[in-house]
Mitochondrial outer membrane protein porin 2-like (Hevea brasiliensis), 276 residues
Amino acid sequence: MSKGPGLFSDIGKKAKDILTKDYSSDQTFSVYTFSDAGVALTSTAVKKGGLSTGDVAALYKYKNTLFDVKVDTESNISTTLTIYEIIPSTKTIASLKFPEYNAGKLEVQYFHHHATFTTALALNKSPAVDVSATIGTPTIAFGAEAGYDTTSGNFTKYTVGISVTKPDSYASIILGDKGDSIKASYVHHLDQAKKSAAVGEIFRRFSTNENTFTVGGLYVIDHLTVAKAKVNNYGKLGALLQHEVIPKTLLTMSGEFDTKASDKNATFGFSIALKP
């Protein structure tokens, strides 16, 4: 794939990852294994509230094709087939779910030095169509996406965005929800090694006149430990600590606390991931 502006879904992703990635209120235990045949197996158990769920996933790569199959505790099967370079500079993704046959989707991504294009088609009798495109460079990118329902003949969504990437910072603005919301985010690395970063995000919904302002940060304490924290203008405080307890065994602990709630309830989550 060529180096270009990236997909539309990449706009705002850096700020989103710092503020949301790995935060959880669940208890998760995952085990990763690799077979001699080159198949990667993942077993995951999740406890959320009083309910326990889990799934088993198998990932296999053969030349330019990637096979991914997942089976959960309710016997739902999800399969994803990813093929690179059927046509130069493209990636094709086909996904199916059983027994939910109508949940399938076919997606084609095209990458160019100065543009990317994605189209996704639902595999059912009345397919919804999603299209997105970006133009620019790895430094600055403009993009838009739209969704169209062929049954009703209406647009389900349309969104535009812009991102600017510099060696020590990243900024983005996204106008979404059919023009009803705007989100602006900024990430700044505080050191050349990028071990620490500060992030700010402003979200406004015009129909409700609601504003949400969130600030957060990430700090790499050492090569084994990462800490993150965030707080918004509604008093919701979150913190996360991720540590490699032993080689290839990752422990993540996170919690969120509403400082303005009368009951002062806090939610906590942790995950353990074992890799070979």
Summary: DSSP finds one helix and 19 strands in the chain. The longest strand covers residues 154-166. The helical segments are 13-20. The chain has a mean pLDDT of 92.
